Amino acid sequence: MTGTERGPRERMVFSAAQLIRRDGVGATGMRDVAAHAGAPRGSLQHYFPGGKEQLVNEAVAWAGRYAGKRIARFMAGMSEPTPSGLFAAMVRQWTDEYETAGFLSGCPVVSATVDCVSSAPSTREAAAAAFATWRKPVAEALTGMGVPAERAESLATLMISALEGAIVMARAEGGVRPLTTVARELGPLLDAARES
């Protein structure tokens, strides 16, 4: 969906997610979001009567849905889907971004979690829901590739946790080594979880 296909509310949620992933919640102001979205400032109060907290929570929810939808695209792009192939695709999204655009952005869910969980319980709930929204299609994909259902959920948690940690480390180091390392090291474990 391009920016022209989104209405003003959707553009503001998308813009908030993009600014949060780059700058964090604290450094992302409502005016910044309106300017990035090309929306009048007054529309923020109209669409987000709960203020910045509501906007952040909706941006976090958007990010969880986006990540979850990417799983189907990753699966569709593999001729012979494997758990390691899925994880490699998840990682590649980030290595590609970092190699072309630099290490400017991370995950908006992680940024909001770090910045807001202690001060905004609703953001903690939004972040937990976003991770669950992402985890579910990962677990379903694993099950579809022969991973027993009772392991798929925990392996999905492991995959997302390893990816998010590697993203943070890659940004800190300014290099993709943490990302390529988790893909290489976790791949065999994921493939070994499939039933024969």
Automatic annotation (TrEMBL):
SUPFAM superfamilies from the entry? Answer: Homeodomain-like, Tetracyclin repressor-like, C-terminal domain
Question: What keyword terms does UniProt attach to this protein?
Answer: DNA-binding, Transcription, Transcription regulation
Q: Which residues form the Transcriptional regulator LmrA/YxaF-like C-terminal domain?
A: 86-184
UniProt lineage: Bacteria, Bacillati, Actinomycetota, Actinomycetes, Kitasatosporales
Q: Where is the HTH tetR-type domain?
A: 16-59
| InterPro entries linked to this entry | Homeodomain-like_sf (IPR009057), HTH_TetR (IPR001647), Tet_transcr_reg_TetR-rel_C_sf (IPR036271), YxaF_TetR_C (IPR054156)
Family matches, as Pfam families: TetR_C_13_2, TetR_N
- The answer on whether this UniProt entry bears the keyword Transcription reads yes
Has the keyword Transcription been applied to this entry?
yes
Q: Please identify the protein, giving its name as recorded.
A: TetR/AcrR family transcriptional regulator
Question: Per its UniProt record, what PANTHER family does this chain match?
Answer: HTH-TYPE TRANSCRIPTIONAL REGULATOR LMRA, TRANSCRIPTIONAL REGULATORY PROTEIN
